[in-house]
Amino acid sequence: MGKTELSLLRKVLFFAGLFCGTSIVGRAQTSISDFAGHVDDHYNHMRTLRAQFVEEYQGAGVARSEGGTLILKRPGKMRWEYNSPRPKLFITDGKTAYFYVPGEQQVRKQDAKRLDDLRSPLRYLLGKTKLEKELAGLSFIPAQPAMAAGNKILQGVPKAMGDQVSDVQLEINPKYEIVRILIDESDGSKTEFRFSNLEENVQAEDHLFDFSPPRGVEVLEGNGFAP
User: What parts of the chain have a pLDDT lower than 50?
Assistant: First the structure.
């Protein structure tokens, strides 16, 4: 598996969708602490989250776009099911993580606690998120173009991954839903995630986060887990 594809899995960071029901329209003077606190409070009461996502990557002379469905469930469960341009699956039950491309003869397996993967902290968010603790230098970006009028953009650096990520921007709509994440990595690569059709507290059975390797497929374990 190539370096660029390996880098692709290591992109998403912490915030696939954080929610609050209170409108932010007309609250231009809201402090960072208040704003982040509203997001934290609502998100910490969620049991599950489902969303459609588009992932766009640029780096090492490569540009690519992928998309699919994300499902999160407390505690620590996560399923990234890609369907475009080709099917692939990144899944964890909170203990073990797998990455598999249907039709390939290998599946990658890793202890979830040892994942060197920027999207892996997502599984901890339901019930634990705290934006100001996760992102250093958290601030509004008033002049940055947003996808829609009324959206706000936050910027910060992930404290746990400052050696890999130089900047993260979160675009949040008037319902406090994170609809876009932009990640600048230290190697110069950039990844953008856009989220739509956000649904909270949906039915998500535990079996959606289980994975049994197909017969005849080799299981590769240990360091280097990433697509």
Answer: 1-29, 121, 124, 225-227
Under 8 Å CB-to-CB from 61, ≥6 apart: which residues?
Answer: none
Check: CB of residue 77 under 8 Å from CB of residue 94.
yes
Among candidate residues 123, 117, 91, the one with its CA nearest the CA of residue 208: 91
Q: What sign does the dihedral 176-63-98-82 (CA atoms) show?
A: positive
Cβ count within 10 A of residue 114: 12
Helices (DSSP H) in the chain: which residue ranges? 3-9, 32-43, 131-134
Amino acid, single-letter form, for residue 66? E
User: pTM score, two decimals?
Assistant: 0.79
CATH number of the domain that residue 34 is part of: 2.50.20.10
Query: What total number of domains does the chain contain?
Result: 1
